Each structure stands twice: as structure tokens, then as C-alpha cells.
């Protein structure tokens, strides 16, 4: 008996534009809950835009996006999109992941501080806690942004090339981390150019020129998530 996988995000006829540029064209997809989904495709194919649409930071020009999750999605952007010269420390950066959970004065409680410490520990950046982001290597900064994403404790974690620029061991560690996080009940969607990371995902979506070209569900219909009604 096939056990149906619930859908975390359902996209129907979604198109997205930047001015005159069409980045997504009539995208239809069901993203399985509590699994790792890899978005793969060449540069400029629309992966980041799709993540932005799912995160709710880029409004689709047409179509619908339905999220089953209660929490606000956590979106971890590519490091090139993060400001370089902000005088914030690694700890501050990770702590920003708690902002949505804090009151008006954004004062972290003991539990928030413990979580921030745990997220830094998980990404191996505890020793860098007092360093400013601008003083870090690209890979170290990328880990700080990932720790910030984890600190949000969202049940929908969206990551844009989380292992880009990391050394091979660190790339493997990030892929392991994503699998661990999804095993804990989080839906993970990540854009990647790393074939190993894509192959280790539970579900793959291949994008080309703003369209979905293939999913692994095409090859194995039993693996397709079952739509929610
Ligand atoms: N801010 C923007 N303004 C105008 N066009 C944009 C903008 N961002 C992306 N685009 C265009 O939208 C299309 C999809 O870009 P997107 O960044 O989603 O691709 P991608 O698959 O994530 O690429 P990469 O692998 O290089 O990160 C491309 O044609 C790109 O040039």
C-alpha cells in the first residue's frame, strides 16, 4: 500500500515577472511535506524566483500558491544577497532569526539565547559568535545565515544554494543537516547546483527557462505527493 505524502506547498499555474522579464511560466507543482525537495536547473532558470514566490516575498503575476504550513516560512538567501558591510556579529545575525517570535522590544529570553547558541553549535560557528559578518569568509558567513534560518524554527525552510562556496566536507555537512532537519518534521526546499545534494533529496524539481521540465515523480508516480483539498 502506498502511503500518501501530504502536500506542503501547492502551486497552480504560477507565473512571476520582473518588469518585462518573465521568470516563471505556468508552474504547477506539489511539494511534499516533511521531505527535502531540491530545485535544480541552469543559471537564470527561475529557482530563486520560485523560492521567493513560495516564501511570499515575490507576488506571482498570476496563479495560486497554497501553503499547508502554519508558520511563516524561513528563507535563507544566497550569501551574495546579504549585505556585506553591516556591523553585526554572527550572534546578532543568528538572533535575528528569533525576531518574529519576540515582543516589541525584541529582547531574547533565556530559551531564545539557548536556541541561538544551539544553532551556532550545529553550524560549527560558535567560536565566531563575536566576529562581524564582514570579517568572515564567504563560507563562514553562509553558515551564519543558515544558523539564522534554523533559529526561526519554521516548519517550512527555504534555502537558496545553501552550500554554494563551501568546501566539499562542509557541503556534505549541510546536505546531512537538511536531511536531519526534515526528519524532524520540517519541509525543506533548496535550490542547488550540487548534483550530490540533489540526488540525496527526497524529491527533485528540474526547472528550465521558468518552466518545470521534470520531477522525480514523473519517473515514479507512486512517489508523487497527494494534493490536499
Ligand atoms: N531582480 C531582478 N530583476 C530583473 N530580472 C530578474 C531579477 N531577478 C531575476 N531576474 C531574472 O529572472 C530569471 C530567473 O532568475 P532566478 O534568479 O530566479 O534564476 P535562478 O535559477 O535562481 O538562477 P541562478 O542559478 O543563477 O541563481 C532570469 O532571467 C533573471 O535574469
From TrEMBL:
Keyword vocabulary terms for this entry: ATP-binding, Nucleotide-binding, Transport
Keyword Nucleotide-binding among record annotations: yes
Domain ABC transporter: 9-226
Name of the protein described by the UniProt record: Zinc/manganese transport system ATP-binding protein
Matches recorded under PANTHER family: IRON TRANSPORT SYSTEM ATP-BINDING PROTEIN HI_0361-RELATED (PTHR42734:SF5), METAL TRANSPORT SYSTEM ATP-BINDING PROTEIN TM_0124-RELATED (PTHR42734)
PROSITE patterns registered for this protein in UniProt: ABC_TRANSPORTER_1 (PS00211), ABC_TRANSPORTER_2 (PS50893)
Keyword Transport: yes
Coiled coil: none
Similarity comment: Belongs to the ABC transporter superfamily.
Molecular-function GO term, any one: ATP hydrolysis activity
Amino acid at each position: 500500500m502506498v502511503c500518501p505524502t501530504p502536500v506542503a506547498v501547492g502551486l497552480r499555474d504560477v507565473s512571476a515577472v520582473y518588469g518585462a522579464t518573465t521568470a516563471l511560466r505556468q508552474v504547477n507543482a506539489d511539494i511534499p511535506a516533511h521531505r527535502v525537495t531540491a530545485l535544480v536547473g541552469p543559471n537564470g532558470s527561475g529557482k530563486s524566483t520560485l523560492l521567493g514566490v513560495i516564501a511570499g516575498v515575490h507576488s506571482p503575476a498570476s496563479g495560486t500558491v497554497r501553503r499547508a504550513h502554519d508558520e511563516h516560512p524561513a528563507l535563507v538567501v544566497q550569501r551574495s544577497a546579504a549585505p556585506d558591510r553591516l556591523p553585526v556579529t554572527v550572534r546578532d545575525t543568528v538572533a535575528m532569526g528569533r525576531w518574529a517570535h519576540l515582543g516589541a522590544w525584541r529582547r531574547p529570553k533565556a530559551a531564545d539565547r539557548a536556541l541561538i547558541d544551539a544553532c551556532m553549535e550545529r553550524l560549527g560557528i560558535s567560536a565566531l559568535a563575536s566576529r562581524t559578518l564582514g570579517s568572515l569568509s564567504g563560507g563562514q558567513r553562509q553558515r551564519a545565515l543558515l544558523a539564522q534560518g534554523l533559529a526561526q524554527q519554521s516548519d517550512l525552510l527555504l534555502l537558496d544554494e545553501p552550500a554554494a562556496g563551501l568546501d566539499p566536507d562542509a557541503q556534505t555537512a549541510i546536505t546531512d543537516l537538511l536531511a536531519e532537519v526534515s526528519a524532524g518534521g520540517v519541509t525543506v526546499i533548496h535550490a542547488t547546483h550540487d548534483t550530490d545534494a540533489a540526488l540525496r533529496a527526497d524529491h527533485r524539481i528540474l526547472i528550465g527557462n521558468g518552466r518545470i521540465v521534470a520531477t522525480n515523480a514523473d519517473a515514479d508516480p507512486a512517489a508523487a505527493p497527494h494534493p490536499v483539498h
